[in-house]
Amino acid sequence: MSESVFRNYIGGKWLAGEDTQANVNPSDTRDVIGEYAQAGQAQAESAIAAARAAFPAWSAGGIQARHDALDRIGNELHARREELGALLSREEGKTLPEGIGEVGRAAMIFKFFAGEVLRTGGEVLPSVRPGVSVDIVRQPLGVIGLIAPWNFPMAIPAWKIAPALAYGNCVVFKPAELVPGCAWALAEIISRAGLPAGVFNLVMGRGSVVGEAIAQHPGVTAVSFTGSVATGRHLLAATAARQAKVQLEMGGKNPLIVLDDADLDIAVNCAVQGAYFSTGQRCTASSRFIVTDGIHDRFVTAVRAKLQGLRVDHALKAGADIGPVVDAKQLAQNLEYVDIAVREGATLAFGGQALERETPGFYQMPALLTDTTPGMRINREEVFGPVASVMRVRDYDEALAMANDTEFGLASGICTTSLKHATHFRQHAEAGMVMVNLPTAGVDYHVPFGGRKASSYGPREQGSYAREFYTTVKTAYTSAG
Ligand code: NAD
Questions:
Q1: For range 204-231, the mean pLDDT
Q2: What positions belong to coiled-coil segments (predicted)?
Q3: Fold of 254-436
Q4: Where are the alpha helices (DSSP H) in 153-262?
Q5: Which of 53, 109, 121, 282 has the most C-beta neighbours closer than 10 Å?
């Protein structure tokens, strides 16, 4: 393996893998960002062993060291957000402002959990037995396997790595195959943050090899996964068999209800921003617009007009609103779903086709499908691209029923000026996150994130709620003797 290969980070050392993989820019497939090491099973196992060896000292070490390390990582991410944002946009395809924003968010997450280190408390209770006291403390779990998707290559690793380390665990991090560049850059920053060797390990490689090794290995106490439902369910079976703790964040088919009384500008902004920005490649993206009769036609006309004004182009080009789709496979899937919808009777009201730009990349015009019904595949299956459909409804009650009529339950939104309907919706939307007059995508970094039904499994991520997953509770009884 040549010196120009980006290596894995295991036990405090940068190590070559069994193989390498080229990291290609989806805005310009002639642009190779680098060659990245691909670990085999043995290397994944050596990372788990390194993390296990580091755990006793790290978990017993002081909270000041944990705080300082996380704070340093957050500071460096913040200081380098423009450079790293450009790397993110180059490898994943979201626009430069979106890339920079995501790195800034990752920085804030590390700084938030630096603070959480100092706020990890317990409880002291009287016992029901005289002379006995009870205290309840949170303890680290051990080695945590973190398996991430490609669509937020900085923020999702950050919201898994930061709490894992904050609460005293050791980490084996496996990024998605398509985005090793951000993972490597983040690992390089972490490698200089003052953590003992083995506390944090980066293992790049295939899901079927490295991910599988993490899922199966008895030395991995817990696995936090974000990705597709199919992989998540497979991981659940593997980890349940050995009673490992597991947390899964998966797909969505997120609805945005627009009622007759909505402010049209707000509704159109929520729809376009929530469904199409970041190329629609967000698990919280709106993909079903559920619109009441009285505003339906005005809404469709205004969304179409807004889409006409958006520029799909190279992610790093100034003025690009929407970057490319992440790869050829995802683009083919998006185009196929547009075809399926039309074959099932939908009207293609705008876009949907593949585009050519100055550079060879995976460009697609945002797609708006109208005249769709709840049974169509476009309204039941996650596309994960810049594709959204409109369903026409009579009133709020029908809209709510339709919004909840899905196997998923990640985010759910409503645009209305009615306090009554907004309040009822917040109460009755079957989703982990509910937005009123805001896009379904776009959340704060200091509060819980997650869903219901097929979208999620296990405790919430982010905010102080992250401690539910990354710690275990111990109840201690003491008698004065
Ligand atoms: P994916 O399931 O294909 O891959 C996710 C990760 O799992 C990758 O690192 C992959 O290498 C790994 N993996 C694959 N096979 C594995 C196996 N057998 N064992 C262990 N690991 C394995 O998902 P993706 O295409 O990278 O991401 C897109 C999906 O992620 C979409 O469904 C999207 O909705 C979802 N997503 C969800 C959230 C959320 O928080 N709910 C956030 C972002 C993305």
A1: 98
A2: none
A3: Aldehyde Dehydrogenase; Chain A, domain 2 (3.40.309)
A4: 155-166, 180-191, 212-216, 229-241
A5: 109
